[in-house]
Amino acid sequence: MASFQQPLQCVQYVKQQSPSSGEFLIASAGRHLYSYAATTGQFLDVWPKNVESNTESAPEDQAPPEKRRKLSSGADGLEENLKDTTAPKKSSGKQLPEWSNIPILTTSFDGKYVIALTAEDKCIRVFNLGENGKLEELSSREMPKRPSALVLTPDGQTILCGDKFGDAYSLPLIPGEYLPRTEKEKAYKPAATALTVHSRRNLESLEQQRIQAEKAAKNGGVKKPSSEEKTSLNFEHRLIIGHVSLLTDLIAVALPTEATPGRNYILTADRDEHIRVSRGIPQSHIIERYCLGHTSFITKLCSPSWAPEYLISGGGDNYLLLWNWGESQVLQKVSLEGLVQTPEPIVRGIWAVSLEQSAATVKAILVALEGSPELLSFTIEEDTLKLQDTIQCFGNVLDLTGIDSRGSIAVSVDTIREPGSTEAWKSTSGTPQKLLEYFQVSVEVESLKWKPVEDPLATSINSAGTSALPAELDDKQKKGFDDILYTLGVLRKRAYD
Amino acid sequence: MTTPPPPKRAKREEYRRNLQNQFEAHQNPDAEIADVKMPQKKFFRQRAHANPFSDHKLDYPLSPAHMDWSSHFPAFIDPDTSKTTLGGARKLLKDVEVVDIGCGFGGLLVGLAPLLPDTLMIGMEIRISVLDYVRSRVHALRIQQQKLKNGTAAQASAENSNNAEASVDEDEVGSTTTIVPGNYENISGIRANTMKFLPNFFAQHQLSKIFVCFPDPHFKARKHKARIVSESLNAEYAYVLRPGGLMYTITDVEEYHHWVLRHFEYQSEEERAQGGIKDLWERVSEEELAADPCVRVMSFETEESKKVSRNNGNKYVAVFRRKADPEWIA
Description:
Structural class of chain B: alpha/beta
Order of helices and strands of chain B: HEHEHHEHEHEHHEHHHE
Strand order of the largest sheet of chain B: 3-2-1-4-5-7-6
Largest interface: A-B, 51 and 51 residues
Number of domains of chain B: 1
Distance between the termini of chain A: 51 Å
Structural class of chain A: mainly beta
Shape of chain A: globular
Low-confidence stretches of chain B: 156-170
Shape of chain B: globular
Number of strands of chain B: 7
Helix content of chain A: 10-25%
Oligomer: heterodimer
Largest sheet of chain B: 7 strands, mixed
Radius of gyration of chain A: 24 Å
CATH architecture of chain B: 3-Layer(aba) Sandwich
Mean pLDDT of chain A: 83
CATH superfamily of chain B: Vaccinia Virus protein VP39
């Protein structure tokens, strides 16, 4: 029995600007990043290279488990960090990377750079994508908290990163030289005084702190790093927006206006049902408005580049909202009930594609749900989302990308699990295992039709495969892999008093 | 097998039930009940800290346009029944304009009520028991005012002054014996986590004043993210506060005061050149503060400020004015 191949977690079509005009498909699977020729599906490069690429191990075995962090980065957090970097890895023989998967992947508008997030080490990595499709890592920047969204500003020069702590940072695409701020060492002084604490026990512990501090000072002073130092990052960055919630998605939108050359906005969504509209950098501290209309956590925002006045948002509340976001106005509420078979649907992805067809350019919105093989398609007509043909995929939809120049989309699918389930593994995947499906769009009587096509891009990637999962996996290891691909269910709230 | 609730809790529940019955009895205008008891704090105490990051079971409106304020300010309900909120509730004649974030037992609201009798003010508190107390307190004050206005005043106040020294429980604060402007119809309290849900309650530029009085200092460095003042939250305060509106802060912790200053004012020219949220705030001068009666109420009439006074603690006041939004940089 052939063992399962790592499914493609992210896929991204890239068309480089002239003179090269190269077309590539960049994909992540397991701990690797792959580059393929978009026309033939020919394998071009893999990153990282110095790793045995044909066997992947279960995430519990070698990769460090997902860190269960406390909410803040205090003294405990620091120690944890130190431990993580100094502790010898269990698998001392092999040189395994510190991450088990690459959950976010994006590219620059000119197609020259690939930006990827490696999961457990929270590193944003920027790659140069050569004309021959080779990936060259230019920089890696470790963020303080696990990023949940990475986008580029409309000028393509700055990365915006939203994280699970509710913060959004801006960092230059290409990091320059960074001079770390030198901060004077300050003696530790408790902020509380006998005048501000009142209970007997608190007064006692305050006294203990004072005695400890005195002792430490006598012994030459054991340095107690200040909180600023601990969180300081050794590269240029700026905290631009903060939510007191989990930040789930972030997009940067340029909205053309009548008189001015157009205004930049940053839209952020959180687990507490908010969509915040802020000005673009450097004025992102000014909140222009909120778009309030969801009744459960939000997972995805999408503003089509071909119609930036619209916003489509979705999450855990069984409907999509179409917004005129410049006025915080809900144009349409599209119920998912009846459209999909998933009982408690969570929107996994919303994509706006613009596909070149012989006759015209087809503009469509595609929506996938967590753990579902159905792919909904819509067009936007007169301020409404009009439902089109629903695409049935071979397995749960993981990601997709428009192959713009050929009027098609490439959809990465999970054929390890039963379609419609995030945890029921098949006994066998069939050979070759389908990783990618290819659909061609056509317009028939004012409506969109999607036709599955045996394109060399999909067939050659499917037959080449990625890296194999271990043949034997116990339930716990399987659960580990499930949790990598399907992360949205945990966002649902279990309210208590 | 279920264990019976501890006696303390049973006592609390009984007390609150009786209080509720008392209020209900007063709903009947013919009821001949002479005295209105103020609620006692000891039945409403709750641990001083709440985790703002956890998912409390909270009620909050979908948006400010959905918020039902009618039960909070019945005297201000628009008589036109055709006017309703997006949630279908009756509309008010005016919007809430003043917010006390972390209102505690409501001392500030009670102190401000007669000063700004035509302004609707709301206290927001995350601790449910404490908020229950505020609601009961406002309710009792309103009934007292009603009785005073109805002429039972003379009798009641005579009675009150007779046994005032003898029977007023030290814990049972705030009884009034005179008619005050606004009759406390302009204040109320609401349970909310403002760090998460402020924009659900208030629209852009709706507020004229925000108070943050003696906030939880969260002394430990790793708890600083839970502080009610931060650059991120200051952006939200600027969103709900109108240009020219005021942000009042007071604390007894010097380090926290500096924290507040640091998060509203630029600390260096270099920082100012970079720009940021501090562009939107300017500190209000000492002279202006001396003339502002709200500062006096904040400094001397809230429960915490009295506690600090008793303990001979320091009080650090800082008030910031929200400036107009700068021009767009495309």
